[in-house]
C-alpha cells in the first residue's frame, strides 16, 4: 500500500483522495452547467441569435450539436485518460470547455453575421460537447478509483445528482434574469453573462485540479506499486501481463465487448428517458400546456431538485440491494409509470400541479442514473476504464439525440404526445434489458476493489 492509498480497513482517505471526490462532485456540477446552458439560457434569446425565421429549428440543432460532440469526446479523451492519467486529461478538458463557453458569450448577433451566428454557435457547441465528455470520462472514474468500496454507490449518486442540480440552477438563474432585466435586455446581453459565469466556474475548477488532485494509486502500473504476487485488487502478475491491450477495438469486438454492449443498451435506455422527460418535456410545457412559457423554468427547476435528491439516494441504495436489482426495478417503473406521468404533466391545469407531476416523472425515470458512475467504473478494469466509461456513456446517446428528426416523422402515425410516451416506455424497457444482461453486482460483489469487481463481472 502506498502513502496515498486509502486504508482498506478504516476506509479513510488521504487529503488527495478527499480532494478528488470533492472535485468529482463539484466538477460534474460545473460540467452540467455547460450541458444545460443552451437548453434553457438560449431559448429566450433565440430570435437575436438565429432570427425569426429559424429560431425554433436552431434551438433544437444547438442542443443536438453538443450531444453529438460528446461521443467523440468520450472515445478520444477516454483513451487519453487511460494512457496519460485522469487528472492531466481532466484539466485539459476543462480548459477547452471554458474556452468554448467564452467564445459563445462573444458571438455576434444575427443582425451582424446572419446565418453565420447559428453556424458558429453550432460549431462551438459541438466542440464543447467533446470537451465536456472528456471531463466526465476522466474525472468520474478518478473519483470512483479513490472512493472506498462501500461508498462508491453513494459517491456515484452524489456525483451524478449534480446534473439535475445544474439544471435547476440554470432554470432559476434564467427565470431571475428575465424578471430583473426583462425579455428584451435578457435577449440583448443577459444570456451572455450566464456563459461567462460558466467559463469562470470551469477555470476555477481547473485550478483546483492543478493544486489539489492527483491520480489514484490504482492507475499506476501495479507491477511497480505491489512488489510480488497479487496486487491490491487480487489479480496476479501473470493475469495482468496477459491482459489484452486497452483500446476502442477491445471494447467493440474484443475482450471487453460484452461489458461495453451491455452498458450501451442500458445507457441508451437512460438517454431516451433523459431526452423525453427533460428536453422534450421542457419544450412541450412551453408550447402545449396551460403553463405560461415564462413559468416553465420554475417547473423544470423544481422537478430537477426532486430528481437530484432521489438520484443520490438511488446510488447509495444500489450498494444495499445490488446494482442490477435496483436498475431492473427502476427501469420497469419508468417504462410503466413514466408515460402516464408525462401525459399528465403536459396536461396539468395549474403551475403547482405541473411542477409536482414533472418532479414525479423525473424521479420515476432519470433518477435511475444514481448508481451509473459506480456501475460503469466497475464494469471495466483500470487500463480501459476511462475509455469504457466515456464510450459507453457517450456513444449510447447518439440515437436518442436524433429525436428532433424522428419524433416529427413518427407523430403523424402515433400522435404528438403518444410518440414521446412511447420513447419513455422504450427507454424503461432498454434499462431493464441492459441491466439483466449484466452481472448481478450484489452488495457482497461490489464490496471489493474496482478491478476485482470488473474481473468478476467479466466471468
Most strands sheet: none
Please give the count of helices. Answer: 22
- The percent of residues in helical segments reads over 70%
The sequence of SSEs as H and E is: HHHHHHHHHHHHHHHHHHHHHH
What is the element layout, followed by pairings?
Layout: H1 15-41, H2 46-50, H3 55-84, H4 86-105, H5 110-113, H6 115-146, H7 152-160, H8 162-212, H9 222-225, H10 237-241, H11 248-252, H12 257-287, H13 296-321, H14 323-346, H15 351-364, H16 372-379, H17 385-395, H18 398-401, H19 403-414, H20 416-437, H21 443-446, H22 450-458
Helix pairs in contact: 1-6, 1-7, 1-8, 3-4, 3-6, 3-17, 4-6, 4-8, 6-17, 7-13, 7-16, 8-13, 12-14, 12-17, 12-20, 13-14, 13-15, 14-15, 14-20, 16-17, 19-20
Question: What would you say this structure looks like, in words?
Answer:
The longest helix has about 50 residues, at about 160-210. Residues about 1-10 and about 220-245 have low confidence and may be disordered. Helices cover about 80% and strands about 0% of the residues. By secondary structure, it is mostly helical. The chain has helices spanning about 15-40, 45-50, 55-85, 85-105, 110-115, 115-145, 150-160, 160-210, 220-225, 235-240, 250, 255-285, 295-320, 325-345, 350-365, 370-380, 385-395, 400, 405-415, 415-435, 445, 450-459. Helix 1 packs antiparallel against helix 6, helix 1 packs parallel to helix 7 (about 150-160) and helix 7 (about 150-160) crosses helix 16 (about 370-380). It has one domain (about 15-215, about 250-459): MFS general substrate transporter like domains (Growth Hormone, Chain: A, Up-down Bundle).
